[in-house]
Amino acid sequence: MAISMQLLVLLLTFLVAATAVSYNHYRLPTSLRPQKYNLRVLTQLEDPANLRFEGDVTILIEALEDTKNITLHAKNLTIDESLIKLREINGDRQICIASTEVNTVHDFYIMHTCQELLAGSTFELTLPFNSELNRQLEGYYRSSYQDANETRWLSITQFEPASARLAFPCFDEPNFKAPFVVTLGYHKKYIGLSNMPVKETKTHESIADYVWCEFEESVPMSTYLVAYSVNDFSHKPSTLPNSTLFRTWARPNAIQQCDYAAEFGPQVLNYYEELFGIKFPLPKIDQIAIPDFSAGAMENWGLVTYREIALLHSDAHSSLVDKQRVASVIAHELAHQWFGNLVTMKWWTDLWLNEGFATYVASLGVEKINPEWRYLEKESLNNLLTIFRKDALESSHPISRPIQEVAEISESFDSISYQKGSTVLRMMHMFLGEDSFRSGLQSYLQEYSYNNADQDNLWESLTEAAHKYRALPKSYDIKSIMDSWTLQTGYPVINVTRNYKANSAKLSQERYFLNTQISRAHRNNCWWVPLSYTSQSESDFQNTAPKAWLECGKAGETLPKTIENMPNENEWVIFNTQVTSLYKVNYDEQNWKLLIETLTNGEFERIHVINRAQLINDALYLAWTGEQDYEIAMRLIEYLQREREYLPWKSAFENLKRVGRIVRQTPDFEFFKRYMRKLITPIYLHLGGLNDTFASIEQQDDILLKTLVANWACQYQVEDCVPHAQEYFREWRESPNPDETNPVPINLRNTVYCTSVRNGNEDDWQFLWTRYKKSNVAAEKRSILTSLGCSREVWLLQRFLELAYDPTDAIRKQDSMWAFQAVASNEIGFHLAKNYFMANVDSLYKFYHPITKDMSRLLPPLSEQIISQSDFDNFKAFIKENRKSLKGLDQALQQTLETILTNVQWKERNYHQLTRSIQLLL
């Protein structure tokens, strides 16, 4: 087919960066505003060699200011200029386009009009477009699955944060909300899904066996929430009485794995309607499991997309951890239907308003529906453990961070936006109380429904509620308090120095850093800290309301604080009841000794389980950075031999893992191993070792505790752990049909697989690799994938790394990083993975591009194990030399280097002290 000269020129402008563009700001001009989109997309899935889409978009545009150009977003689209139409609605006249230009830096497509578009007028712009269904897992892309040895293709969208522009020309910023009418064209053997219900389906006017499927007009929404898919999936309906039509979709050969999601989803949706006081705004909601998906899930309004591992659940193959993951992700995405979709941030600076809220509210939703899981406690502690680590780096960033180019947006989808955002919201919930928190949220959502807001709008609604319910003094406002948490990087350590004669305590705060070279002058930040505390005789851990506040002055300086009426000198005091606030506490030596006495010899259970986890975490962190002695920290965690609860063990293992990864590279690892065995043996035996006792376990978090302890027990060869794991594996291998019959207890499979591969041979590895290729369950595939990296055979690990990045092999692109991380976390595999990363950085960058966030996830297991100054210097030089192949990873690289530096510092400062402390306890 002959190509027009005009079209050829346009294609070239897309391929070559525009040299002189008239508009170069990173945000769209505000002179025009979309009022409505009519989007038609024809998708061709029949020819695997030519998977494409084409269509046109008609945008109703209002001029807010006089302008002579229309600037919107388009990327990697072919647009035939000769078919662009612009019509003024008021006068019903055509307006010509004088010229167009492309800004490839900001993905702008700019049309210069022959005459001025006057403020107050409305225009109709129609743009045709076409492109291939890409393989990059963003924009409008292809995915596939195998059914009876046949490859079946489907199409799906992933537009967040800025990829709608890859699918159709649009105003691709969150504050340009408009209603959408989507019409999909496709072969009649498929089905079409979008945000809204189907309005009508009719035969295509010219292509045989094709149909046009038009969906109802949507509510006003941001472009990143538009979604559509053409597929041949099956679904499970699960609508509750008097509620929204609710369907769960998956490939037909996995539809039986949808039962749990179909049951849980409508329940949590109903809970949110009650919590927010607003009915779900759409007539239906679909959730769909996509075989190839870059994110965990995506909250598209009315059509929520998930990785298979985040939506599908199999009673025969998925552990309790897997099930809780599914519940958590569904609850997170459905919370977004209000926080993010109904009320959207004005700009990506406030991404945390979406993600922090969805993370926190999800934990409330899961807790409400499955109280037996004690999920809120577990999730709160997990978030704290993540943030205490990540946000103690100088290279961390504020929750609310300025965004000045699209590349920076994806870096904000990290634990600061999610877990720290959630943690500070939990803190606020606790100091405000239920009534004012809920009332403030409801008035915020009602006021900004179908609009955009920023964090100050939320603070206003909450301040009003706080004063109404007398949760805060009139002189306090939420903005002053919360800005100290959202606009500053880091968190404080609060030093509590008691005056035992005067029964008082002096409190001071400073920013906590892992890097001990940072001077005291750089630690002088101030946070508004709600202070809850209790004493040994009182032991009131239920009262989490603040008894006092650490305040900041007008210039942001810390105001001194002394608290009277402390207990007598024989009693401990604990600050931060149930760890409702994001800070560490360092006590004077006497208070630490009183705490150690109760934990080791007294009624340690009188201290709340979250505070026991807090004491372990704070003591080990403060010892790491030298603010506390390792002797105190190690004496404190000795009590774990008496501990039978999940959260303190989780806290201990998270900290000991980091120390272990350094010490295992030294001659004194033998002492550390003996110490770990001493610590773990009592709890391992108490839980029945590796025996399948799960049916008799009454408390659900004891299942998690047994899973956790088993993993560590086999790593450190406690008792019969390794031979017992190998026995399970041998039984499985001898099974006549191992893909149907697996005698390994579901919750112990990770441990059994990894232990057996680590202590096994090539046949064991090959057996597990075959099971991976044959498995139909995403959670099981993840377990197997991470276990294959446990081998101690260098050649097998090297082969596994090659398989992970072979596009023709069984490991999907989205899962390659799990394989890499598994090898890199293994003490033998670490050196191979590091060398592989450094030798193949160019091809790895091309493999992951443009989703560089996935490449950044290869770095943490490397940074946690580099411990010498020379290796640090080498890695730093490597980064400097390979900037081009590490583009877009700036934040991850800074954090990697800083983490390595803190390892080097720890080894020089603490290694001998830790070894001495351990030897005294053996």
TrEMBL record:
Similarity field: Belongs to the peptidase M1 family.
Statement: the UniProt record of this protein carries the keyword Membrane: yes
Gene3D superfamilies attached to this UniProt entry: 1.25.50.20, 2.60.40.1910, Neutral Protease Domain 2 (1.10.390.10), tricorn interacting facor f3 domain (2.60.40.1730)
Name of the molecule in the record: Aminopeptidase
Keyword Glycoprotein in record: yes
GO molecular function: alanyl aminopeptidase activity; metalloaminopeptidase activity; peptide binding; zinc ion binding
Cofactor note: Binds 1 zinc ion per subunit.
Keywords linked to the UniProt accession: Aminopeptidase, Cell membrane, Disulfide bond, Glycoprotein, GPI-anchor, Hydrolase, Lipoprotein, Membrane, Metal-binding, Metalloprotease, Protease, Signal, Transmembrane, Transmembrane helix, Zinc
Stored PANTHER family: AMINOPEPTIDASE-RELATED (PTHR11533:SF253), PROTEASE M1 ZINC METALLOPROTEASE (PTHR11533)
Species the sequence originates in: Drosophila lebanonensis (Fruit fly)
UniProt-annotated catalytic positions: E333 (proton acceptor)
Catalytic reactions of this protein: Release of an N-terminal amino acid, Xaa-|-Yaa- from a peptide, amide or arylamide. Xaa is preferably Ala, but may be most amino acids including Pro (slow action). When a terminal hydrophobic residue is followed by a prolyl residue, the two may be released as an intact Xaa-Pro dipeptide
Residues binding Zn(2+), per UniProt: H332, H336, E355
Gene: LOC115621847
Residue stretches making up the Peptidase M1 membrane alanine aminopeptidase domain: 260-485
